[in-house]
Amino acid sequence: MTTETFEKQKTIDLRKKHVGPSCKVFFSHDPIKIVRARGQYMYNEKDERYLDCINNVAHVGHCHPDVVKAGAEQMELLNTNSRFLHDNLVLYAQRLQATLPEKLSVCYFVNSGSEANDLALRLAWQYTGHKDIITLDNAYHGHVSSLIDISPYKFHQMAGAKQSQHVHVALSPDIYRGKYREDHPDPATAYADNVKDIIEKAYEKGHKIAAFIAESLQSCGGQVIPPVGYFQKVAQHVRKAGGICIADEVQVGFGRVGTHFWAFQLQGEDFVPDIVTMGKPIGNGHPMSCVITTREVAEGFMSSGMEYFNTFGGNPVSCAVGLAVLDVIEKEDLQGNALRVGGYLTQLLDNLKERHPLVGDVRGRGLFVGVELVRDRQKRTPATAEAQDVIYRLKEQRILLSADGPHRNVLKFKPPMCFSREDAELAVEKIDQILADLEKALGLHMPEATISENGHIKRKEPIEENGHILPSDVSSHKHTTIHPHSTKSNKRLRT
After folding, report:
1. Block means of pLDDT (10 residues each) for the chain, length 495 residues?
2. To the nearest whole percent, how much of the chain has pLDDT over 70?
3. Looking at the chain, which terminus has fewer C-beta neighbours within 10 angstroms, N or C?
4. d(CA 60, CA 56)
């Protein structure tokens, strides 16, 4: 089964001719042409199957029949301007709000994550009467002009670009590579105090803070998991200064973290943002998104006297699709699957870390997992070229994975939520083989280990577990055996 119109090279040629040159493709030297997809699998023009570890957009699985059916049936019946009354809009708003804390009760439906974050800024500016925004280093919040300004991940790439005087960049709360690491007694407070310092310096220059915006877990920034308590402390500083807090859930919402439906809930029940933005997974690839806020912020937005109008935000088809996505998450227990399979995936990756010196850190929640590759564990030297080699060689094995972070050395797992234990095993098995080949070529070895009298391994360097340093004399059942590793040589290895 194929829907190919042109041969692959013709498609490439037409893309080069008619599509903007800054619109990049995955694996640019040999891009993949995908003609269909289902579940966690994508198929090329030769009907070869690829395991998709990249597409968090297809949240409940590519082309899920229930979602497709809901959209098609509603499209046959009606799709119209959202200024007309329609039950799908209020039904969906009601269902969506039920997943959130009670105070987050007012919805604005829009068409993309970028549009949602742009509207969130407008809400903050109008409600507070302030102008300045605090964002995190390495953050990405969207592609429109207002969001490029608050996305260091983007504006740091621009030659000669100057940071807006109304944008302040706080330290990324990264306890593996950031300023305050896992050995710090209270990294949450230390990183939050950085935000406090920014607020104070801004006020000294006559600037007032409208909002602090952050992904609940940083994605493009390298799968960063903030220390618990960080957002609570930041919220205290920001609200005291008259600002509000925006949680960007575009990448990590809708049950992906497993234990909770929303990633900001990982911080605890005592943290509730003033605005939550969502996109991508909300419609399983259908172009829709949402901003949810408090009644107070919504009424403040209305006080400007300007009507807010979005022609197709919350249209009948989009809301039918959104309702179907929520139904599938619940019916197929995809949040539970994210917890179970994500935990298993993390365990397998932790096992890799025990055998491979290139693996510096494994971190994540549910089916949002990062593997940071390093040349030197002590110095944490980014293994950027090696990470790129891994993803290209995985592609040859028909497994699609990406690498990101400020050094492009973090392997990112954010697959469709139907990802299985067997999928996790396959991906990690292939990564295991590739890392072994790379380490052999680079001459990298795990630190020597000696067997103590009780049979446990006693390492000569501190053991790292999920970013936490354990004393070198601590041993556990995880360290009772040394796993010899052998693999077939790979003639296509690039060093």
Report:
1. 78 93 90 96 96 96 98 97 95 98 97 96 97 96 90 73 88 97 97 98 97 96 96 98 98 98 97 97 96 97 87 96 98 98 98 97 98 97 97 97 96 98 98 97 78 40 36 32 33 31
2. 88
3. N
4. 9
Cα 334–339–344 angle (5° rounding)? 120
What's the CA gap between 289 and 275, in Å, rounded?
14
Q: Rounded to whole angstroms, how far apart are CA atoms 233 and 225?
A: 16
- Tell me the pLDDT tens digit for each residue of 321-371: 999 999 999 999 999 999 999 999 999 999 999 999 999 999 999 999 999
Q: Which residues contact 168 (CB under 8 A, 6 or more apart)?
A: 132, 133, 134, 135, 198, 202, 209
The radius of gyration of the chain from alpha carbons, rounded to an integer in Å, stands at 23
- Using alpha carbons only, give the angle 84, 76, 282 rounded to the nearest 5 degrees: 70
The HSE-up count of residue 399 (CA atoms within 13 Å, CB side) is 23
- Determine contact, residues 183/209, Cβ cutoff 8 Å: no
H/E segment holding residue 148: helix 145-148
The pLDDT assigned to 164 comes to 86
Interval 433-444: pLDDT, tens: 999 999 999 999
Position 306, amino acid: M
Alpha helices in 332-483 (DSSP H): 334-355, 384-396, 421-442
Q: Judge contact between 334 and 418, C-beta under 8 A.
A: yes
Q: Which of 64, 400, 476, 114 is nearest to 277 (CA)?
A: 114
Amino acid at 379: K
Distance from C-alpha of 212 to C-alpha of 136, rounded to nearest angstrom: 9
Report yes or no: 182 and 167 within 8 Å, Cβ to Cβ. Answer: no
Both tokens of 480, joined, read 């009772």
* Angle, CA of 240, 251 and 244, to the nearest 5°: 15
Query: Which residues have CB under 8 Å from 145's CB, separation 6+?
Result: none
Structure token pair of residue 192? 């939050």
23: three-class secondary structure by DSSP:
coil
C-alpha span between 79 and 443 (Å, rounded): 61
Tell me the one-letter amino acid at 322.
Answer: G
Contacts of 456 (CB under 8 A, 6+ apart): 475, 476, 479, 480
Tell me if the pTM is above 0.85: yes
Q: Tokens standing for 295?
A: 């009644």
Strands 399-400 and 49-52: parallel
Report the 10 Å Cβ neighbour count for 33.
Answer: 16
DSSP state of 134: E
Question: What span, in angstroms and rounded, lies between the C-alpha atoms of 445 and 478?
Answer: 19
Q: Please choose, from the candidates 60, 66, 104, 97, the residue with its C-alpha nearest in 3D space to the C-alpha of residue 320.
A: 66
Contact between residue 464 and residue 472 where contact means Cβ atoms under 8 Å apart: no
Q: What is the distance between the alpha carbons of residues 141 and 342, in angstroms, rounded to a whole number?
A: 25
